[in-house]
Amino acid sequence: MKNYISAISITILFLCFFQCKGQTNNTNENYTFQEGSIDGIGKFYKGREISHVMGYQGINWLERPDREKEENTSRLIKNINIAPGDTIADIGAGSGYHVFKMVSQAREGLIYAVDIQPEMLQAIRDRKKKERIDHIKVVKGTEKSVNLPENSVDKILMVDVYHEFSFPIEMLTSMHKALRPDGKIFLIEYRGEDTSIPIKKLHKMTEAQAVKEFRANGFVLQENIDNLPWQHCMVFIKE
What we know:
- This is Methyltransferase type 11.
- By secondary structure, this protein is an alpha/beta fold.
- The chain contains 8 helices and 12 strands.
- It has one domain: Rossmann fold (3-Layer(aba) Sandwich).
- It has helices spanning 2-24, 59-62, 67-71, 73-80, 99-102, 118-131, 168-178, 207-215, and strands at residues 25-27, 32-34, 40-45, 48-51, 87-91, 110-115, 136-140, 153-159, 179-191, 204-205, 219-224, 231-238.
- The longest helix has 23 residues, at 2-24.
- The radius of gyration is 21 Å and the shape is globular.
């Protein structure tokens, strides 16, 4: 009887060990789950912890007066080299800060403003109506898809948003489908290599990390335009 109880006790200990281990370090085919930082969601992709999404409550920060000075957004728009007939998707468009800067240059084209937060999309609709702009199309995306037609866009812009995607593989797959064969992705992220930039670690990315993730999903880095004060401007194309 004593031996039987001991065997049961050992079995319970092993079960507890593996159960606890599973709760702190789970994996599936693509992502790893473990205890993360205060700014992250405890989900990792290729060694990078995914950050929390900035909610619509941060809309004033997106529209802050100092943004042009801090980020040189005018130069960023020049980097995109927008042609009048371009179809461009701003993924994670937020309040539409960059959408409304691009729309006058793509005057014969179309700008897709894609976001998952209804409050952000409503802000874009309100301004679009107020300014009587016809060639902006508001699109509600999901955590796994940009919800754009296949082979529909010439350029994709993502500004300080990719690091927040809960499903980066699925999102990159949907963008790969939406992008035309000669299309480009402009990935804008605060430089993770520079500790002096006053942005939280999980809201930055290194070039090496971005290349690792994009290469795994069918993209190659064409160039990194190094002319912004704090951010990478990485240009990816289909392999």
